[in-house]
Design a protein that fits this description.
alpha+beta; six-stranded antiparallel β-sheet; 4 helices
Length: about 120
């Protein structure tokens, strides 16, 4: 996926909001909480996303994937896709959507109700 395609996908998720932070990174949030960071530090077609324990363990050492800089170093289960050999486009979309779902589930009951989740 290109950076534009990643941005389009993240932007299309319900209640997704977008801000530019951290030196031109496209940051996507739901309920004010980050679920994806596209193009961290002008790195182009990269995306960092929250992962389940299992996905983090399996994908951390996969080609084109690594623990997300800054985020994973703080003990968080975040991965970064940085080359096309890492995941197929469909699989990458599935992992971004899973990140969105993990973050949405972690919102307060009040915030989920405000968003209609």
């Amino acid at each position: 996926m290109t950076r534009d395609e990643m941005n389009q996908f993240c932007n299309a998720l319900p209640h997704s909001t977008h801000v530019v932070q951290w030196g031109n990174a496209d940051v996507y949030k739901i309920g004010g909480k980050v679920f994806a960071v596209v193009g961290m530090g002008n790195s182009g077609a990269t995306v960092s996303f929250k992962a389940s324990e299992m996905a983090f363990e399996i994908l951390s050492d996969s080609p084109g994937m690594r623990p997300a800089p800054y985020l994973a170093s703080r003990g968080l289960k975040w991965l970064q896709y940085y080359t096309p050999e890492g995941l197929s486009d469909a699989s990458l979309r599935d992992h971004i959507k899973a990140s969105y779902d993990i973050v949405a589930q972690g919102l307060t009951k009040k915030k989920r109700a405000e968003l209609g989740l």
